[in-house]
Every structure is written in structure tokens, then in C-alpha cells.
Amino acid sequence: MRHLMILRHAKSSWADEGIRDHARPLNKRGRHAADAMGRFMAERNLVPDLVLSSDSARTRETVALWSKAADWNGPTDFRSELYLASTAELMDAARSSPETANRIMLVAHNPGIEELVSRAAGRPIDMPTATLAVFELQEPSWSGLETEAMSLTIHQRPRELGD
Predict the structure, then answer these.
(1) What angle do CA 36, 38, 43 make, to 5 degrees?
(2) Would the pTM of this model clear 0.85, i.e. be above it?
(3) Where are the alpha helices (DSSP H) in 96-136?
(4) What is the pLDDT of residues 116-141, one digit of tens each?
(5) Which residue ranges form the domains of the chain, and what is each CATH number?
(6) I want to staple 138 with a disulfide (CB 3.0 to 4.6 A). Which of 47, 120, 145, 149 is the partner?
């Protein structure tokens, strides 16, 4: 069974108003949430074979903190095209995944993340920062992936983890 895990980056800092959006780091709450989500996923054996992530500072930091907390050292592919990617671009990234990977995690931004999760779930789904959505896929091939063949099994917000 294949799984597509979708993680929105953790909460970023607006302390420096002069910094470009792409370069914004995480704030304290975001760092805590990325760590908590990593521990949650590791405890439930929800670790990916591959991470596909936006190349922004906040997604890089989210992946680094998540990886450490999950004790995960697998491959991460940081892609510029995933920065503020649309649903179609996110799906294209998933479809480009190697067939040897059974679990892929996308780490990116809203509104694309929320639109993709909502479309695949068939209903509106909120994706606040550091929220995880996990889908089981009926499609045996990444290249043939369509949202209609995805079933939402987990929707986890960091604030619900109780840390």
C-alpha cells in the first residue's frame, strides 16, 4: 500500500519585516510544532521513504527539525517549484516519485497544500501550519496518481498533540 503524506511547513517568523518571504525562518512555536510532529509520526511508524519539499527557509527548517525528532535520515529533495506550488504542481511532484518509494511526504505551503488535501478528501480540510494529512492510495503507480484514488486516513494538527 502506498501513502502520500502532506505536511504544511511550521509557523514562520514575521519578526524581521524586511526579509523576503522565501527566506523567512520558523518562530519558536513553529520549531516546537515541527519537533512534535516528527515525534508523533515516528511513534506511529509514519515515516516516508522520500521527502519532497519546497526550498524555502521555513520548509527546510521544518524538515530538519522534523527529521531529527523522527530520527529519520532518508533522502530529501528540495525543489524550487514547490515554493508556493499549486495543487497541480504538488501532484506532478508526487507523480515524479520513484516507484521504489512506497511513502512520499510533500512539505510545502498554502494555499496549494490545503487545496490538494481538500480535493483529495472530497471536502474542505483546514491545514494550519505543521498540520499533517496522510492518504492511502489505491493507485499502484505514482505516475498514475489522481486525487480520486486517495483516501484520507489521518489529519493531525500539532495543537492537538498535547505537547
Answers:
(1) 95
(2) yes
(3) 112-121
(4) 999 999 999 999 999 999 999 988 89
(5) 2-13+22-161 (3.40.50.1240)
(6) 149
